[in-house]
Specification:
Blueprint: E1 9-13, H1 18-29, E2 33-38, H2 41-50, E3 53-57, H3 63-72, E4 78-81, H4 96-124, E5 128-133, H5 146-166, E6 171-178, H6 184-189, H7 193-201, H8 211-222, E7 233-236
Parallel strand pairs: 1-2, 1-4, 2-3, 4-5, 5-6, 6-7
Helix pairs in contact: 1-8, 3-4, 4-5
């Protein structure tokens, strides 16, 4: 692998499973010094057995833990805000508890972690790059995903604000917005053809994404090859949004 991130430190949140884990491994393969953050210590232990990485455990739904974790990892050059949760409830049944927890992880934690990391980037004076992992549901309503859709819409707008205000400091900020991604959780949630069929019918490529599809795009956006890509909300959806 080309060492495009040699000498750079990359923080990946939600690195224990799925997209985050694959992203951490991909960035390490490209030479980054990876800092993996997860709420599950066992996942961090198993990841550290696969790649050489620094690990930190935190529950990002807790503002103090999010802040303390971001402060503890030291200077960061590349940030991937991947951690996210979903609690499936219809609009009429969405509870304030579920809404608040989803917003805390999917939006507020991104704000907290990014503020701390970006201040460090500004202090170093070398710029940096941030990628937020959003979802196609920021732009399309999906049944029983009320709070999740709202959180990803908010994350897209937070991405734009970060790009607007951090750009002058040479910190690039972009978002990736995948369709259904076949993580272990995704495979379980979409294994029923009655559920997956209608979604696949709206994807011109006729298949869901895999974590590596996201990880490679994230790596590209973090790299100097994407030097003039800034403030983008990039669908990784097989054409879902055009159908």
């Amino acid at each position: 692998m080309e060492q495009i991130f040699y000498g750079q430190r990359a923080l990946v949140t939600g690195a224990g499973k799925g997209i985050g884990r694959t992203t951490a491994k991909t960035l390490a393969s490209y030479g980054a010094e990876v800092v993996a953050l997860s709420r599950t210590q066992a996942d961090l232990v198993s990841l550290s057995e696969e790649i050489d990485c620094q690990t930190t455990q935190a529950d990002l739904s807790d503002a103090k833990q999010a802040r303390d974790a971001a402060l503890s990892v030291g200077a960061i050059d590349l940030l991937v805000n991947n951690a996210g949760i979903s609690i499936l409830e219809s609009f009429l049944d969405t509870s304030t508890e579920a809404f608040d927890k989803i917003m805390a992880v999917n939006v507020r934690a991104v704000l907290i972690v990014s503020q701390i990391v970006a201040k460090g980037m500004i202090s170093k004076g070398n710029g940096g790059a941030i990628v937020n992992v959003s979802n196609q549901s920021s732009m399309r309503a999906i049944p029983d995903h009320t709070a999740y859709c709202a959180s990803k819409g908010a994350l897209d707008q937070l991405t734009r604000m970060m790009a607007l205000e951090l750009g002058p400091h040479q910190i690039r900020v972009n978002s990736v917005n995948p369709t259904v991604t076949l993580t272990p959780m995704g495979e379980m949630a979409w294994s029923d053809p009655k559920k997956s069929g209608p979604m696949l019918d709206r994807i011109p490529l006729q298949h869901f994404a895999k974590p590596i599809h996201l990880a490679e795009v994230i790596a590209f956006l973090l790299s100097e090859r994407a030097h003039m890509i800034h403030g983008a909300i990039l669908p990784i959806d097989g054409g879902f949004l055009i159908s």
